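Continued from yesterday's entry.
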Amino acid sequence: MPHLFWVSAIAPFMVVVIGGVFDFLVHGDEHGIPIVGDLKKGINPISISQLRFNGKHVGVVVKAGLLSGILALAEGIAVGRSLAMIKNEQIDGNKEMIAFGMMNIVGSFTSCYLTTGPFSKSAVNFDAGGKTPMSNVVMSVCILLVLLFLAPLFKYTPLVALSSIIVVAMIGLIKVKEFIRLYRVDKFDFCICMVAFVGVVFFTMVIGLSASGRLVCAQGTAVRG
C-alpha cells in the first residue's frame, strides 16, 4: 500500500515516544527496566589539538585502529551490498571506503566514535522507505537538532524499545530462500554463511566475522595443501 508509506516511516519514532512516556509514568527505571539514561545537550568540541603521537599507548592505539577500520569497512560494504541486492543495484566498493575514511577523519577532529554504515541504522532507514542519500542528510539534521535541543527528553527511552526497532528492521533483511539456494550450490559456503549469521545475531559482529574468516582461511589452507 504505497499511500501508507508514512506508517513505516513514523513507526520507529512512535515506538521511542510511547516507550519513553510509558517508562516515565510508571517509573520503569525503579522497577528494573533499562533506559538510555542522562544525555547532555550539545555536540563535541574540537579536539584536534589534543592529538599526540609520543604517548606510551600509541602502539596499542594503532593496532586497535587498524582492527576497527577493517571491521568497519567489512560491515559497511556488507550492508551496502545486501541492500543493493534487494533493490537489484550495484555499489562501488572504492567509493564506500573513501566515504568511510573521510567521514571518520573529520569525525576524529571532535573525538567522535568510529562511524560506519551499520546494520541497525541502515536497516531502519531502508525499512522506513529511504530511497536516496537525501534520507541520510535529513537523518543527520534531525540528530543534530536532537543533540542541541532535545537530548534530555530521551532519558527515559527504554532500551527494549530501541532493540525492537532494530530487530523488526533486521528481520526484513533475512532471506531464507538465499540460505536454501546457497546450501544447494555450495555446502561449505553455506557453513560460512551460517557461522557468520549465528555469530553476529547471538554474540557480536566481531565474533561472527572472526569465526567465518577463520573458516575461509582454513579452506584456503586445505586447498593449498
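--- second protein ---
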Amino acid sequence: MMLSKLSRRCYCTSVQQPWLFLGLGNPGDKYNGTRHNIGFEMIDVFAESVGIQMNLLNFKAIMGQGFVGDLPVILAKPQTYMNLSGESSGPLTAYYKLPLNRVLVVHDDTQLPCGVLRLQEKGGHGCHNGLKSVMHHFRGNKEFARLRIGIGKPPGQMDPKAFLLQKFSMLARERIDGALAEGVEALKLVLSKDFGESWRLFNVEQKYKHLRQHTIIAP
C-alpha cells in the first residue's frame, strides 16, 4: 500500500509539525523477538497504545500515521535490514520536509543494562550500524533524538553479532516487556514536552531502576 500525496499535504499543513518515530530492526519472521529488533517492537507497542495502524508500505518501510492528541505522528520500521536503515529514513524524512529535531530513532543499546531506557537529544552512533546508516543518509547530521533501549552486554567471549540476533532469556524478556511499557510513556513525554527537565528526570528514574536491581543477571 502506497502513501498518498494527500497524506503528506494533510500532515505538512497541520498546525503542529509532525514527529517521526523510527524503530530500527531487521525484517523477517526469523528476527522477531531478537535483541536487535527491539526498535521494531517499541514502535509496534506504541502504535497499539495510541491506536495507530501500521498498514502503509513506502520508503522501504512499514509505516503508520495518526494523531496523539492534536499532534501528528508518523511511525516507521525500515525494512532494509539494520545496516541499511538510512536508505529508508533519509528519503522518508525528506519527503515530509521534517527538521531533524522532529525525528526520534528507537534502537537497541548494549551499553545500557537490559531493560534500562535512555532518552537522548542527540549523539554519535556508538558503533551501532543502524545509526551509522541513518546518520550517513542525514548527511552526517547527528542532531536527532534517540530512545535507547538497553539489552546488556554479551556474556563472556560471546560473539556480539550472535548476541544481537538471539532471543531474550525468560528473565530478560520480563525486563524488556516492562521497558516497552515505560517506553510508551517516554515517547508520549517526547510529544508533550521539549527537551529539558522532564527528560532528565526520566533518565534519572531509569538509572535508579537499574540500581534497585541488586544483582545483575545476564540477559
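The CA atoms of residues 47 and 97 lie 22 Å apart. Helices lie at 5-12, 38-50, 86-95, 129-137, 160-164, 170-192, 197-212. Will compare against the first tomorrow.
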